[in-house]
Amino acid sequence: MKKMIDQKSFRMFFIVFLFSMVPVGLSQAHDTWINMQNYRLNQSDPAVLSVTNAHSFVIPGKELLPSGQVDTVLFLSPDGKEIPSIPEGNEKYKSNLPLKTDGSYMAVVKKKVLFSSKTVDGYQRGKNKRDLKDVIECSHSEKYAKALFTVGVAAGDVYSKVLGHPMEIVPLQDPGKLKAGDLLMVKILIRGNPARNTLYGTYAGFSTEPNTFAYTTSTDKEGVARIRLLKEGLWLLIARQDFAYPDPTVCDKQSYAASLTFQVR
Fold first, then answer.
1. Is the pLDDT of residue 12 over 90?
2. C-alpha distances in Å from residue 225, one per residue of 30, 107, 175, 197
């Protein structure tokens, strides 16, 4: 009996060792962000988007999330009023009404929350430590995405609306009014509080390599980060944070991630 336990313990140690040898860039979770079909709309056009879950910022988006993995999709008007979405096929969503008011709009997506467990037999999605044996590490993941776009001329203050997500990126300026070379200030909030965190930014066309960004910076004590908009085109900002899961018998890690996409003139 002791010999069998020792063999099992050795096998677990060996598997953990092998996983520890995997490069960090390859082991990072996918990021989730919104791809708007258009970031500048005419009056009476509907807003259309898809949701990407991938390692690299490629336009048009690849690795689109099917509807079964998306929890919430909605739009916010320039005055902050909610506009519901309707599915368009299995991977796209559009506003249920044409957008008739000029100004800046926000699209909001929440990915379905799920557990993911690394075991000696590989990854198991949707299961935690109580569901499985030989769990090396369990993660509980929450991902939230925003996109800013305009109808006609950018106006209103919806861009700075705090939504109350466990983690979110809140612009302090309207990206729809900025151009290449300008400095964009954003605030990162975790559980509603300003957070010391790292902000990653990149633009479409910079690189197709996984987890490769054009700009990396850190927030100050007020949770504010400043990012130079180096180039015109579509931009993606990413922030992530891990915490210990409240109940270690269920899972090890609570992971939050937030993204913001927008277009620079």
1. no
2. 23, 22, 14, 9
Single pTM value for the model: 0.87
Between 3 and 42, whose confidence is greater?
42
Question: Per-residue pLDDT tens for 146-171?
Answer: 999 999 999 999 999 999 999 999 99
